[in-house]
């Protein structure tokens, strides 16, 4: 439990409770009085050492206890006390406990003036409203922070694209039919920046990072709302693309390839290209099987000259 609810409970028990309580020595002098008792008696603090008879007309004799434990030396009885407030007699009723060392008197039935009740309730409402408002702000802030942490956990920090974990979770939801209504057919586009090691070796890793960032921005501009792009690792990227046929998927990949090839990065003299491998999802497919097919197609694109799209499609019911 967070600290704020605990503070609210403590505040209620100590400040808002209207049950006066006092702890007395055997001679009837105070050792403790709670806020409700002090408020009743208009006291700023516990009158330690003062006699309770100074404030109340009360008897501490227990002649006919309603509870008595001889072994423990504890007994309890009903008690009545009174005092005069603005010319009117105010009575307390409650219980008196005694354990041979001290008295504890708890007044749970008493009469209050209407004005006092209204004042106390109004004050309590204002303070509780303020604390509840603070608690609501704290809860909203914690909820926002939790959402931000969740987002960061699924995001690549350099490119701001979703990361591999996010992609795999999205693919799992799609492949297990957890998305409603049932999603359309889909495929995977796996692509890798050509000659990226040469860029890092020639221009440095800072420029290499800029290439990754600019490429990711272009990917974000080209994808559709239902597609799920991700940085899959290093200079390798992947897209879960909603397409009905391999031809549609290939057309989309070719459009993306062309956009990347046209990308101008001022820090380097040559253009940045990427090689693409694509495959469609079939019944019985696993994500591992799909990525493996796309990776094989990507290798084929690299082997056939780079900056191109290659596809591998498998018969339906293909399993890993």
Please give a structural write-up:
- The chain is α+β, with helices and mostly antiparallel strands and 320 residues long.
- It has two domains: 19-111, Beta-Lactamase; 164-311, 2-Layer Sandwich (Alpha-Beta Plaits).
- The chain has eight helices and twelve strands.
- The chain has helices at 3-16, 35-41, 114-153, 164-175, 196-203, 205-222, 246-261, 287-303; strands at residues 21-25, 30-33, 57-58, 67-69, 74-85, 88-98, 102-110, 186-193, 228-233, 236-242, 274-280, 309-311.
- The strands form two sheets. Strands 1, 2, 3, 4, 5, 6 and 7 form a seven-stranded antiparallel beta sheet that branches.
- Strand 9 and strand 10 (236-242) form a beta hairpin.
- Helix 1 packs antiparallel against helix 3 (114-153), helix 5 packs across helix 6 (205-222) and helix 6 (205-222) crosses helix 7.
- The longest helix has 40 residues, at 114-153.
- The protein is rod-shaped and about 105 Å long.
């Amino acid at each position: 439990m967070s600290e704020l609810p605990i503070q609210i409970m403590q505040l209620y028990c100590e400040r808002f409770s209207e049950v006066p309580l006092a702890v007395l020595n055997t001679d009837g002098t105070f050792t403790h009085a709670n806020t409700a008792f002090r408020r009743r008696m208009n006291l700023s603090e516990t009158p330690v050492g003062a006699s309770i008879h100074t404030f109340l007309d009360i008897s501490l004799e227990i002649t006919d206890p309603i509870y008595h434990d001889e072994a423990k030396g504890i007994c309890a009885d009903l008690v009545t006390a009174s005092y005069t407030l603005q010319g009117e007699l105010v009575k307390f009723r409650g219980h008196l406990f005694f354990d041979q060392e001290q008295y504890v008197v708890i007044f749970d039935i008493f009469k209050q003036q209407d004005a006092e009740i209204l004042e106390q309730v109004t004050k309590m409402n204002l303070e509780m409203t303020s604390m509840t408002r603070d608690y609501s702000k704290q809860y909203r802030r914690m909820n926002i922070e939790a959402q931000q942490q969740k987002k960061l956990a699924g995001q690549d920090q350099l490119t701001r694209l979703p990361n591999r974990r996010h992609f795999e979770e999205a693919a799992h939801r799609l492949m297990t039919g957890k998305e409603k209504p049932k999603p359309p057919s889909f495929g995977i586009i796996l692509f890798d920046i050509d000659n990226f090691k040469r860029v890092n070796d020639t221009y440095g890793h800072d420029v290499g990072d800029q290439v990754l960032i600019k490429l990711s921005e272009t990917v974000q501009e080209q994808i559709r709302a239902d597609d799920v792009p991700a940085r899959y690792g290093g200079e390798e990227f992947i897209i879960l693309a909603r397409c009905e046929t391999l031809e549609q998927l290939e057309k989309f990949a070719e459009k993306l390839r062309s956009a990347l090839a046209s990308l101008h990065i001022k820090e380097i003299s040559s253009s940045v290209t990427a090689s693409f491998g694509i495959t469609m999802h079939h019944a019985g497919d696993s994500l591992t099987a799909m990525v493996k097919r796309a990776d094989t197609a990507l290798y084929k694109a690299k082997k056939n000259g780079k900056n191109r799209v290659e596809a591998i499609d498998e018969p339906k019911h293909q399993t890993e």
